[in-house]
């Protein structure tokens, strides 16, 4: 396929970005519904179960960020750049390479969390019933980590080819299965057994099993369907994925380590504080699928233009998508900063949880637009294959949050001061990433 035949290279930016992002935004609503439903169902089990969910959430975030956002971005970027350069055979050969990486990533998560989960959640401040709840959820969920990796990798292959609709429909369909199944297994709706918090994890694993099958069929029927000649492994193609995916995974590790450190700090204020923080931070993380929808469109469009040698237009696409992401996060952040109970009361009526969750919203939510802008520019950099500076921005955020949080704890500061450190970290992440993209010369990507 000649590069000039790609419609992305001459199509108007805003309508094309909207067309590619629309399925992902619709999917984000389904994913938000899944997350809200899971938290609601688990919340019915009590504060200890909600605290256990908060303990596991950083690791679940790492699983999704590495498989879908980091390595998935590397896969989408490699496919988009290959198609932008007119090399359809290379795009097909990337399928086998991407799946091998996914298998390794999934096994690594299973070994790590099943082998060291108790110690890890203990370090985060998990004690007693909250720790046992965390393990009951974590062992089932991460035992099926390979399924999440395979489904997200296959979806990333499709998105890299410009097909954002099919994976969105597949994931939406599995969400319609996961939500009622999670409620049935968590709370024991007849005739299902009451598995408690483990029921939500079983539903998660079942949903990704279905998604893996659906994505495999979609890839097999797409223009990426590999032939026997495309199954030969090449170091060059592993490097095409890993040069973006590996360093992006480092960024994901930094993000999750930041969340892990913060969770550990908050846990020192008690179980109610941990539950309230978990409810509050969940909204921050639920914006990721929404911004991710726009960002995956950016990966495809920027990657295709970089492959075709159109760096200046790639930059314009990046800033257009960034403005859209910031606007969405502004609406969400502004709403919950003014009326935090609209969000927190969904999950708990406990007075202490409501107070702490509302405090988090008022302090952190005003920075959500900067967070959304930084995230969009991070994914645009994936498309360009230029990840060092955005990763360093995450390093600065990590250092500030760890140092600032440690100072708050050392001097016995209030929980509000710790949440202020969170806000500062988001501001630095978005600001530094924006500066890095502004200064970057993508013509050398």
Write a short abstract of this structure.
By secondary structure, this protein is mainly alpha-helical. The chain has helices spanning 13-43, 47-84, 88-123, 128-143, 145-160, 165-187, 197-220, 235-267, 271-307, 311-338, 341-344, 351-364, 368-384, 388-410, 415-439.
Please describe what this structure looks like:
The chain is mainly α. It has one domain (3-444). The protein contains 15 helices and no strands. The chain has helices at 13-43, 47-84, 88-123, 128-143, 145-160, 165-187, 197-220, 235-267, 271-307, 311-338, 341-344, 351-364, 368-384, 388-410, 415-439. It is globular. The two termini are 22 Å apart.
N-to-C order of helices and strands:
HHHHHHHHHHHHHHH
**What is the total number of structural domains?**
1
User: The biggest beta sheet, please?
Assistant: none
- Annotation, overall tally of beta strands: 0
> Ends: how far apart?
22 Å
Q: Give the overall pLDDT as a whole number.
A: 88
**What percent of residues are in strands?**
under 5%
Q: Classify the secondary structure makeup into a structural class.
A: mainly alpha
Q: Give the number of helices.
A: 15
**Unreliable sequence segments:** none
Gross morphology is globular
- Helical fraction: over 70%
Q: Calculate Rg over CA atoms.
A: 21 Å
